[in-house]
Amino acid sequence: MRLDPKYFNRFIIICGLIGLLAITFFSIRHSFSRISDYEKRLGQADFSGLKFQSFDRPDSLSVEEFRGKPVLVHFWSTWSGLSQDVGAFLELNRDQYPDLVVIAAAVRDDSTLISTYIDEQNFSFHHVEGTEFYQSLLVPGMPSQILLDQAGALARYQVGGDTLALRNMLNDFFTGRDE
Asked: Rounded to an integer, what distance in angstroms lies between the CA atom of residue 174 and that of residue 9?
């Protein structure tokens, strides 16, 4: 079968549009699938025995040490501007959430860059190596936050660097409002 040359351009445009629609559809579907899978892994995760290698002290840091206080695990990296924005937001708003323990879990980054960044910023967080836990959950984005309640159970989570959404999440948690 031969294609008439006068219809060739239309044919190519239609094929291109169909291809573009297919790529868009499957990209969106994949994104939702990753988030859904992440939610399942979060629901199955055991946070009670969660330990991280600390940058601030020679031994490991356990979430159990903070039982009775809410804990925010903030996955961040020096190469992520949004991570740095969220870190700055959390530090600037420490007074609003005085009971909140922030575990800043560095992900997929050079230890020298991490140490330099920690020294320069001087945030009042517990800085830990978080790559292994981040990868075990297959977190779909950077930065991401996991909020654990006073009993160490999953309360809420957020993927991304939207500080307004993070503020709302924290306010809802501390005022007892459900999501």
From this structure: 60
Reading the block at residue 103, the tokens are: 């575990």
Tokens of 40: 């399942």
Residue 56 per-residue DSSP state = S
Helix (H) or strand (E) holding 20: helix 5-44
What pLDDT digit, counting tens, does each position of 138-173 carry?
A: 999 999 999 999 999 999 999 999 999 999 999 999
DSSP 45: -
Whether the CB-CB separation of 128 and 55 falls below 8 Å is answered with yes
Residues in the chain: 179
Q: What is the pLDDT of residues 55-109, one digit of tens each?
A: 888 888 999 999 999 999 999 999 999 999 999 999 999 999 999 999 999 998 8
Residue with tokens 């990753």: 34
Residue 82: Cβ-neighbour burial (10 angstroms; 0-12, 13-18, 19+)? middle
Cβ neighbours for 172, distance < 8 A, ≥ 6 positions apart: 156, 178, 179
